[in-house]
Design the sequence.
């Protein structure tokens, strides 16, 4: 695994902890800084992980707005916490880090979703980030033409699980009342 891949995983861990425990990013970074100093073997991933986390924190409102605009009917609050954190990292890399090619940012985010989240999460993350990157959804249609992550059009009410947003489908395919049930 490359140093940047390790950094993304480390950043995801920090973002997830901050969100689940409702901690300020600064507190999580302080804890991780101590760990970083105690574990020099992990030094190669620290700088980029810190850059991702502070970038996501600094631009969170704008990043969340981009996610909502491209998630076709999904609010940030309805997404599983892990998917939300992965999407925030992916959007940050796409929009705020020109050093990372779009394809790499998307592939890395999809890999994290595939290995750590639900069966439907990788497709959902791929669809949202693909739309953010170039306005193209997996079906090859542009976002403006209504392509949704499942291949159904937004007008058909497509959700990543195949159920409509009105039916309460979460990216995991489960009906949710709030974040705590969708994790």
Sequence:
């Amino acid at each position: 695994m490359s140093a940047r891949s390790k950094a993304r995983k480390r950043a995801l861990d920090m973002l997830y902890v901050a969100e689940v425990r409702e901690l300020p990013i600064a507190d999580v970074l302080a804890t991780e800084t101590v760990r970083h100093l105690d574990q020099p073997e992990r030094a190669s991933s620290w700088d980029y992980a810190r850059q991702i986390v502070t970038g996501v924190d600094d631009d969170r409102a704008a990043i969340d707005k981009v996610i909502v605009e491209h998630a076709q009917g999904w609010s940030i609050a309805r997404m599983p916490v892990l998917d939300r954190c992965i999407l925030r990292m992916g959007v940050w890399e796409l929009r705020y880090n020109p050093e990372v090619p779009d394809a790499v940012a998307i592939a890395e985010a999809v890999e994290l979703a595939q290995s750590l989240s639900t069966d439907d999460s990788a497709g959902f993350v791929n669809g949202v980030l693909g739309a953010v990157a170039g306005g193209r959804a997996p079906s090859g249609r542009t976002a403006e033409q209504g392509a949704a992550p499942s291949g159904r059009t937004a007008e058909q009410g497509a959700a990543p699980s195949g159920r409509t947003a009105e039916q309460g489908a979460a990216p995991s395919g489960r009906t949710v009342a709030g974040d705590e049930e969708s994790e």
